[in-house]
Amino acid sequence: MFSDTLVEQATTLLHACRKAGAMVATAESCTGGLIAGCLTEIAGSSDVVDRGFVTYSNAAKNAMLDVPVAMLEEHGAVSEPVARAMAEGAIVHSCADLSVAVTGVAGPGGGTAEKPVGLVHLACAQRGGATEHMEQHFGDLGRAGIREATIHTALDMLSRMVSRRPAGT
To answer: How far apart are CA 56 and CA 67, in angstroms?
Structure first.
């Protein structure tokens, strides 16, 4: 289901999380649960993956992750503030130490001049720590290509965050 490269990347991340004693949660919009799916593709991942939130609609982002309606109305779902709020909401509503959130325009339609197809906002949150944000402009790689690039980037962000944690914390 997932490329060998993605499975290898997810396996490496899970190993690093085990070493650091860190649990992970995902909050996904444009990937529709594929990040959690990639992580749970690896047998034994339940000792690291706490849960995944698929919050495709604005109502789900608000109900499941406490993303404020006013924020969604002001900035739109595909924005830095919403990605950050999703990641932080995943921490609050889970037992995870780390979370990753993604929201973007996977296409083929739905893009605008301001928010074109291929724009993705990602955020990683850490319980008791800072939330990091990354904006990616993948371009029009096609829906599958944008989603795959987003998974790679999300796993990379989580890997960098877990690598900065002391072992067992």
So the answer is: 12
Q: Are strands 49-54 and 98-104 parallel, antiparallel or unpaired?
A: unpaired
Ramachandran class of 132: left when φ > 0, alpha when ψ lies in -120 to 50, beta otherwise:
beta
Both tokens of 128, joined, read 């008791």
Percent helix, strand, coil in the chain, to 5, is 45, 20, 35
CATH of the domain at 25: 3.90.950.20
Q: In this predicted model, what pLDDT tens digit does every residue of 96-111 receive, in sequence order?
A: 999 999 999 999 999 9
Tell me 161's DSSP state: H
Q: Which domain holds residue 62?
A: 4-163
Q: Given the structure tokens 């990641």, which residue do they identify?
A: 87
